[in-house]
Amino acid sequence: MLINGLSSDLISIRDRGLLYGDGVFRTLLARNGIALQRQLHLEKIRNDCVRLGIVCPASSLLLAELDGILTSHPNGIIKLIVTRGQGSRGYAPPHDAQPTHIWDVSTAPEYPPEWSRSGVRVRVCDIRLSEQPRLAGIKHLNRLENVLAAAECTDSEISEGLLLDTQSRVIEGTRSNLFLLRDGCLITPKLDRCGVAGVQRDRVLAYAQEQGIAVQIRDVMLAEVYLAEALFLVNSVIGVWPVRALNERSWSDFSFVSRLAAALEQRG
Amino acid sequence: MLINGLSSDLISIRDRGLLYGDGVFRTLLARNGIALQRQLHLEKIRNDCVRLGIVCPASSLLLAELDGILTSHPNGIIKLIVTRGQGSRGYAPPHDAQPTHIWDVSTAPEYPPEWSRSGVRVRVCDIRLSEQPRLAGIKHLNRLENVLAAAECTDSEISEGLLLDTQSRVIEGTRSNLFLLRDGCLITPKLDRCGVAGVQRDRVLAYAQEQGIAVQIRDVMLAEVYLAEALFLVNSVIGVWPVRALNERSWSDFSFVSRLAAALEQRG
Fold this sequence. Notes:
- The structure is a homodimer.
- Chain A is of the alpha+beta class.
- The first copy, chain A, folds into two domains: 2-106, D-amino Acid Aminotransferase, Chain A, domain 1 (2-Layer Sandwich), CATH 3.30.470.10; 113-267, D-amino Acid Aminotransferase, Chain A, domain 2.
- Chain A has helices at 16-20, 38-52, 59-72, 113-118, 144-152, 199-211, 222-225, 255-267; strands at residues 2-3, 6-7, 10-12, 23-31, 34-35, 76-83, 100-106, 120-129, 160-165, 170-173, 177-182, 185-189, 215-218, 230-235, 239-246, 249-250.
- In chain A, strands 8, 9, 10, 11, 12, 13, 14, 15 and 16 form a nine-stranded mixed beta sheet that branches. In chain A, strands 2-1-7-6-4-5 form a six-stranded antiparallel beta sheet.
- The longest helix of chain A has 15 residues, at 38-52.
- The mean pLDDT of chain A is 97.
- At the A-B interface, strand 3, helix 1, strand 6, strand 7 and helix 5 of A face strand 3, helix 1, strand 6, strand 7 and helix 5 of B.
């Protein structure tokens, strides 16, 4: 719990992060004193800040603070939030806004190991994602759609909900990105209208490129998901989850996904 | 500054209001120790809480706290925020969430008096509102679209920006609701896909009904706005602003809007 470099777990009620969700965040997994993909996460949060016109603290500062946190918390989930900071009343971003940056640490969730090995059951959420190109891809603090989507997934047999847009294009999971394997080609939805572009998604894409696996980043209709030879979900905390069931459709060949997961895991 | 009944201006960084914008708010104008339309505001915030599944504190509690605030701050802007409260990591709303409710007081903005008398100049924002029926009408804490819209309105001659949806339907101002007068009929955009349903909008509708003025709540294309005999913006803080110019179109007959504004003002 570090706010602007000082040990604290309280922020002002006038911080625009609270008032308007005017900020961004990323979630890192720490293991044995190492925050996995920290450079990629910092790049993402910096790019997200640029898109919203928020001044992101210097990477050297963030890395130094992260090192300090890892010393006392070598394992767990480390969340970095950057908000536009405090300002006078009203939606317009103040010209002199001083960003607030927050580090928070929590225990890593213990997912059943079979979810990674034998896959998870997913459902299609009723709520549809709205389309806002100006915010698409950004991991910002306006996450009510994810909250409402997660609230739908109360069945303990269901590990994740799939989110579609209003045109029945599949976009992502409530807290993960989605990939399909079809005819040896790796397909993942475009995130130019909605969705969050996660670090783990980039890593899968980089892996595919290295391995000479064809990749398509494009619109994916829900109907096509059922035709996939394999389906999997990724994020920085869960790693890779193969999907074993979506409604009546089930999958049992996880060989490709297992190889991919092992390769990503090995790179740390 | 009162948080859950205690004097404070700091909340936990684990409050879901900050983490996900998982909360709602309303803004009241206090004048001579009276918070205008307090019952209507409390009804609105309660309804918004219901739609998000947030437990809203009892009205009796909120009214008692508000009375205390008015004693020390008889004039100004009083903001009430209700968030879902703190919870364990993850988007899913915790079953045992204890809501956080926050009162904040600030000085009322001093708008030039001629804005109410002689109208304001408005522009059409470039950003388009996304459509999310599940959140439409609610004054929730996911307000990045308003932030980006307000950031566009840097011209000091422009008092407010109009927000359209992707189909060029006019929805609202960045911080106000919009009305058109056409052939003696009062028209205001439907807010079932996006937008915030303000208390002052309801008051205008109630006034029209009392006065026997025809009302239409429906989709309004931008093209129709230019055909209006009068155009005006409302919210609880500004009251009523006639529009005197939108791009090349200008209006100069403010008689209807002035009568309406005076009537609403008189009711307090």
